[in-house]
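Re: that chain you flagged

S.,

Sorry for the slow reply, it's been a week of failed gels. I finally had a moment to sit down with the sequence you sent. For the record, here it is as I used it:
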Amino acid sequence: MKKIFCIIMNFLFVLSNQYLFAQNSDVIQKNNLSYDKNTGKYFNPNQIDFSKKYLDILLSSNSHNELDKYYLYNCDSIWQTQNFQQNGIIGKNYQRIQFHIDNALKSNENSDLYYITGKSKVNNNICNFSGTIELLKLYCYECDFDSTTTCGYLIGQYVFYEDSTQNHSGIFKGIMSCDIYIDKKNKRILLDESMDVADGYQNRTYVGVWVDYHTKLSKKCIWGDYRLPFTFDFDCGDGEMIVCEKYVKNGWETYNDYSEYSISEDKTVYLKNKWWIRPN
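Prediction finished late last night. Pasting the structure tokens below so you have them in one place:
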């Protein structure tokens, strides 16, 4: 929660030369990057690449970068999506794009570099990709859920190359961030999902572009866990992400009506179509 509060406060500071805001929690909550429609007043919705803006907001914290302190720690499990997928948008029409990251491996030569493999899916087109995430910053603070544990958030830059022999392939590149906590006993940095039931929750967020190999055309591409920043009139939900009616037809039908999920007898929610398993 502290990380979310910090980012929102810094976001407001970035905008403070453009408008006056009241010092109360209601205004702060309204200015969430994910689903506040007012962000369109301060950013251009037609802009394609928001990665620099996103990085500026994340770096506006005065916290000390502690990346070097934890260079021996491994955080490869953070990015792997296991039995689930991540959802995102590609293009100005907010076409749905789905991601599954199969593997992440820490480099032996560079402690800040991780090798990533996975798959992307737009409609029925599936592409394999591989690339890297390079860590830029690690900010730490005391965890809300455990005062003896260190929490924080990671910032990195990514570049993922789709297989150029596959249809409609290109390059994903931009800035990512995620909430973390630190397991000092096992020297691991793990994904912090303690706030996943909170309104406005977003995590493992990737903000950048996709560039077509053949046409060199760039498209806005943002994905992650749950809500998505810089998507303006896309999200009409209050407590959770609900795609606005004008965009549902662009691949979001089964997302909005929950029909792509099933619930087992023990109340476990699982995805019906594990599309990344089948060969493409």
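What I noticed first: The radius of gyration is 18 Å.

Talk soon,
D.
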